[in-house]
Model the fold of this input.
Amino acid sequence: YLLSPASLDACRPKNEIEDLKARGSHLRTYSASAFTPFEELICAVVLSRPISHALGLRTIRTLFNEPYEFTTPKKIRSAGFEGVIKAVNEARTQHRQKTAEELVMLADAVVEHLGDGEDDVNLERVRKECGFEWEKRIRPSVGDQALTQQLQEREMLKSHIKGLGKTGLDIFARRIQAQWPNLYPFADQRTLSGLQKLGLPESAVGLKKFLDDHWNEFDVQDLEGDEDEKKRRAFVRVLERAVGVKLEGNADTVRAEAALSSE
Done:
């Protein structure tokens, strides 16, 4: 059920549902849109601040949609602090000054240390410097070398991005594993708590096995990539929606709807 469009509204804050009705389904949202690694980094910084789910997601919608569209390091650097603080003020979030400062510094860090220029949004430099060539040669996420690569990636990001601590790194890893196979399967403690409330396996390995065992029963035509990538994207979708359901207090509703849909 969590993989279907029917579950989306239970994962979203009310202001996002209202925003979609007012501005149209083309609106890019954290709940349903595919983001680049650079955009996922921005989201991780924003959502690691001590703010509500609704405020965090509204900030992301403001940053990534018209008129700001801060989707590349170049766009943020061109806007500068004044442009970014204007967007953050429009989002009516908390910690505005600090958030704007950290986003400008994030763009600078990607250009100088984590990427290949102002237009780079893929952060391949991080993967290459932390063992991406090894990842391409053998199956990811098994063995000590994969764990070493994961730790190196986290340390490289943490050392260059102000405001990105353990919480932000967990948020980034949870989402980016759809695109970076060496991190898969990963689930942080907050996400595992959300899975538990929905009666789903309470470990990353357990959820991966559950999805593998039932794969042919799922409608995943809207997911991008080959079968392995689709499985990673499905895994991330379940994690993200479980977190959203938990934060919006809709676990009982989703469990009831899931039971009805399986009849």
